[in-house]
Amino acid sequence: MSDLLEVGDLHVHHGKRPIVDGVDLALARGEALGLAGESGCGKTTTALALMKLLPASLEQSGRVTLRLEGAEEPINIEKRTEAGMQLVRWRHISLIFQGAMNSLDPVQRIERQFAEAIRLHEPEARSDDVRERIAELLRTVGLTPGLGRRYAHQLSGGQRQRVMIALALACRPSLVIADEPTTALDVVMQAQVLQLLERLREELGLALILISHDLGVLAETCDRIAVMYAGRIVESGPVERVFATPQHPYTKLLLDSLPVIGGERGLAPPIPGGPPDPSDPPPGCRFNPRCPFAAERCSAEDPALREVAPWQAAACHFAPWSEWPATTGAEAGSAR
Amino acid sequence: MAGDDGRRSGVGAMSESPLMETRDVAVQFRVRRGTTRAIDGVSLEWRPGEILGVVGESGCGKSTLARALLGLQETAGGDVVLHGAKVAGKRDFRELRRRVQMIFQDPYQTLNPRQRVRAIVTEPQIVQDVAREEHEGRVQRALVDVGLEPDQYLERYPHQLSGGQRQRVAIAAALVLEPEGLICDEPVSMLDTSVRAQILTVLLSLQRSRGLGLIFITHDLSLAWSLCDRIAVMYLGRIVEEGSARDVIERPRHPYTQALVDAIPVPTPGGGGARELLSGELPDATDVPTGCRFHPRCPKRFEPCDRVDPELYPVGGVAQKAACLLHAPAQGRGADV
Fold it and tell me: Which whole-number Å values give the CA distances from B298 to B174, B257, B301, in the listed order?
């Protein structure tokens, strides 16, 4: 069966400066894909491009194809006009973004905001049905329907985040993109929200793109993971494989920096420096100036993302790595 | 412990007398519906050179506690103690704020956007009357210590710095008074993985090289586990568990700590397993539950929990304590959890 979403050679430019530089993605129905990477790597830009929600100053190119179940023709998002996109957004793909809980309308009751979202796509819906749908949506995310009568400021942060998730589900989309949905939340609330997303995925057959810089969150929630660096995907594969046997030095170092409770305490040596500006990447491999394993070739040739193990791809000249050489303790603490 | 060694005990010496203590400190806010008990009787010790973690959900009072420690927050009761001597009055707190500094989550909000790095790092010395001829040398030293090349950064403005560099400047400004302690309120929660590791490395090397005591206020339990010597867990204005980092996180005794630890995302696929999550949210501190304040959410509550307010009882680990009736000596149910 063909994939729900296919992204081919996605580029996003700001004038002449690339921000996303050739991203390919595929997502099956009901699958959860994690998009990892540090801020500025292009993960949010990628997500917005999938919904054509980029600000006018950014230009996108590349294929974004959505194949809905039962539909004869795929939806070619890249060819859609703004009017055409309005039929897709919320109805087929919806977005929960970071700090979304602060984007509820402060002067309208919660239920009114739901009704608007539902009516946008089903103008004919009867009031009774709409009311029933809202109650059901609120129950789905573990809130009592009575909460619909309230205003946003009368809800706690966790409740607001749940309302946003329910809103994203209002039109029964096939794909939900969640951009750092739990970053502003505490551990307990974060675990509750992640468990909720997982349950919804099971119950509604929802596909999910989860964007997070927290690899722990992705490990728990996703089937597959793609790691982005400076506007590109540098590694992708099934979560178990990528976590057990990372094939890109960047992934490897990110994973090493995670504390494993019960193991050795202390700090792993930080990756020196910071990520480059995607519009002005270093020559060769974009990670080479920070890579402890870099060789001469790495600053000369740009490695392509290629399959280096079953289902697992990495953009590194030396992949597959069967064994990682010991790092010589990355230089610590420098701001360069 | 009180009274001995009121003067500096030599920075870095791991003397037994605490750098700071709170004794039954309370902080209250008047609100329309009554009184919010933001801090409700907290006694805590912070030893010289020690890295102490204060963890809990947002709203549990951990940041308020930090502010109370520095006299930035008026207390409704209890004492703040510096090297065994009670801190009272403006002069004492001014002296305290020279010896103990604080950095915040978002350095962009605390750095004056119109000041250059040089002015930002110099200013605390003016406020605290450090001799003028020392200023330049101390600024240089502080910047070097946080890994910023003075020549490159002295003349920059905050907007010309990255998030990590701004946090380094904030740390440098705190260091310039050569404090004995640094209270860090969520110092890295806004930073990316690689930058946060760099900032933490800076803080740890300062702890080692200067014998600086650190308090990490954070909701990130794995961070607290990896860096802290001791951890205190707060819930609704109280400390509900404290002990060594390993004991508290690897062998938590309070059901609340157990639930927090259980909620940490595990960086092993499938490692989270089927966990039982705490239901509900942190109650409003205006309306603290009777008895044990955690009982309405507690999966292990039993008969007296809604009536009896537990103290911190000694439990398994070295100097580990938990405020849970399961561990109360008289309950006869101790030690089975």
Answer: 40, 11, 5
Give the pLDDT of chain A (336 residues) as one tens digit per residue: 689 999 999 999 998 889 999 999 999 999 999 999 988 889 999 999 999 999 999 999 999 999 998 888 999 999 999 999 988 988 899 998 776 667 788 899 999 999 988 888 888 889 999 999 999 889 888 888 888 999 988 887 778 888 988 898 888 899 999 998 887 677 887 888 888 888 888 888 899 999 998 888 899 899 999 999 999 999 999 999 999 999 999 999 999 888 888 888 888 888 888 888 877 889 999 999 999 999 999 999 999 999 999 999 999 999 999 888 876 544 433 333
Annotated domain spans of chain A: 5-222, 243-335
ipTM over 0.95: no
Token look-up 């704020």 returns B97
Element (H, E) at A9: strand A5-14
- Contacts with A43 from chain B: Cβ below 8 Å: none
> What is the reported pTM?
0.85
Interface probe, candidates A186, A239, A241, chain B, greatest B C-beta count within 10 A: A186
Q: Residue A96: phi, psi to the nearest 5?
A: -115, 115
**CATH C-level class of A5-222:** alpha beta
β strands within B186-336, DSSP E: 213-218, 230-235, 238-244, 313-314, 321-322
